[in-house]
Amino acid sequence: PTYRDGDGLWKRYDAMEVSSLAGLVGEPAKVWAFEREFSEILRGKGPNPGHLALAKLEDEGCLDMVVTQNVDGFHQASGSRNVLELHGSEVHAICLNRECGKRMEMEQLFVGEVDKFWSPEAGWGIRWPEG
Fold it and tell me: Which residues, in sequence order, are bridge partners of residue 67?
């Protein structure tokens, strides 16, 4: 599914509620439910022939940059090196603690029994999608 198709994510979630820091502060459980669902959608998926074609064009010097609204990291996974993600990335999370800034893969936030959104013991604060 995409965000806007018949069974897309924006049919079940309000974009401003789940894709903003205000939403995270106001309803963190809703934000992380969305992030978990999106992570599950991406699991096992990868670049399509269009992503691969753009990477090949870049390799051949016919393309300087890929500018995308996609947040899935498939352009980079296909081999594109110069990618501008207009809406950020759902591939990595960063710590919002300014002194920390630790980065990890988003899918790792949902591995195991305990969600890894917050761990002062480990030296990092709330994780948020990078971008």
Answer: 84
